[in-house]
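**Protein of interest**
===
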Amino acid sequence: MKVLMINGSPNKNGCTNAALSIIADELKKQGIDSEIIWLGNGPVRGCIGCCGCKKAGKCVFSDDPVNAIGEKVKAADGYVFGAPVHYASPCGAMVSAMDRLFYAFGSHMKLKPAASVVSARRAGTTASYDVLNKYIGINNMLQVPSTYWNMVHGAKAEEVLKDEEGVTVMRAIASNMAWLLKLLASAKGTSLEKPVDIPKVKTNFIR
């Protein structure tokens, strides 16, 4: 079993990576493999709503890391989406990447456990946490709980490690993720493997 973690920060070894590394360490202790992928600090295109991914099975834009991350998404058993707070929202590159990942590769993530993690010097964490959680909620995924909102505080990676409550929250995410993955593995081949599928009906507010 493997958990794919996306570091959406433009700073590869900053606070977001520190939070994800804490999760990775605890997952390892509980027998779960993980990989942290850095989104990078280059430009990431926003989704243009062309729906080309529905035909191609990947995003039509191939000049940034989104499709490469999407291929790893297919093989993962669980996910952690991490981003720093920029102006009380997840950094723009992460939002652009998430939009396109979920449009093009969302079917590979359904019914799998996921958590979102945000980091900030001081504020904007709860608003950013809410943004990332909405991707999980709309895609029939299992949101991994913790002991508090999934956030850490600090201006530098070493300061995150001093955020004692934040560290325990990250460790609890990992512990609950490991537990859920093991539960899901034990249900394979049984009647409990998947829920009854309820077809989605789409309506518009203006007719």
Notes: Strands lie at 2-7, 33-38, 78-86, 89-90, 113-120, 142-143, 151-153. The mean pLDDT is 96. Helices lie at 15-29, 52-56, 66-75, 92-105, 125-138, 157-160, 164-187.
